[in-house]
Amino acid sequence: MLGIIGGSGLYDVEGLKIIEEVSVSTPFGDPSDKYILAEYKGKKAVFLPRHGKGHKYPPHLINYRANIWGFRKLGVNKILSISAVGGINPLLKPGDFVISDQFIDFTKSRVSTFYEGILSKEDDTDFQDEVKQFLKDKRVVHIDVTNPFCPHMRSLIKDICEEKGYRHHTKGCYVATEGPRLETSAEIKMLSLIGGDIVGMTLVPEIVLARELNIHFASVNIVTNLAAGISQHNLTSEEVIDMMKEKTEDIKHLILEFIDK
Ligand code: HPA
User: In angstroms, what CA-CA distances link 156 with 16, 99, 260?
Assistant: First the structure.
């Protein structure tokens, strides 16, 4: 089944039938919100608002492990992520869609693995059994992320963007920053020099955790603003929110088409 992680309200779209809202408990605590099970043309998908209802969790405080574990519990084997990013590459314009193919991680304070070594006896609860069952004897694991994004999902997104005539870029390197503050112009200059095309605060550890659970992952990144120092003015949250609002209908249609593919 397909999982979709993005803003709240993306499932409020004509043609998509909401089946039920499900609370999922995980050994890692609570996911950002209830999962919304939906159906389109006979195909099921499950939605989760990354920041919770009312945008209550900032990027550095999202319980990424709970969110991804919850998807797995519901039987999700591929995740389509929708996220807002700043544009670093001069070819990018606000409103463009970027189907990222690489990432660079500049996050600092996030737990970004399910593989935490040997669990102590004190942790022997039912929930830990759920984790142990998954870990078996694999306590220390280094997953391969040479090409972290699913090429098949990326190609489907590209086809949809072409069919719909959305301005898009078929690859791009996403730099993940810690936030919640935006970047300095010096930071963006550095990120540009090392090959970053877009900058955002949520891809890592989301994608890493999904890959640890063998969940395919692709991300549609909406350029909401030019990054710090590239933009002619200081950045505001309103700029990001306004562009996401402007693109909501396009994103919803992209999601519907993706479910149907
Ligand atoms: N930087 C980091 N995250 C973002 C930005 C940005 O400029 N825009 C939207 N999310």
Answer: 19, 10, 11
Mutate-to-test residue for ligand 1 from 224, 239, 242, 244, highest number of ligand atoms within 8 A of CB: 224
254/220 Cα distance (integer angstroms): 10
- Can you read off the two tokens belonging to residue 187? 């930071």
Ligand 1, atom 3, lies closest to the CA of 200
* CA-closest candidate to residue 212, choices 68, 61, 2: 68
Cβ < 6 A, ligand 1 pocket: 84-86, 177, 182-183, 199-201, 224-225, 227, 235, 240
State the complex-level ipTM.
Answer: 0.99
Written as tens digits, the pLDDT of the chain (261 aa) is 999 999 878 888 889 999 999 999 999 999 999 999 999 999 999 999 999 988 899 999 999 999 999 999 999 999 999 999 999 999 999 999 999 999 999 999 999 999 987 655 556 666 678 888 888 777 788 999 999 999 999 999 999 999 999 999 999 999 999 999 999 999 999 999 999 999 999 999 999 999 999 999 999 999 999 999 999 999 999 999 999 999 999 999 999 999 999
Distance 61 CA to ligand 1 centre (A): 16
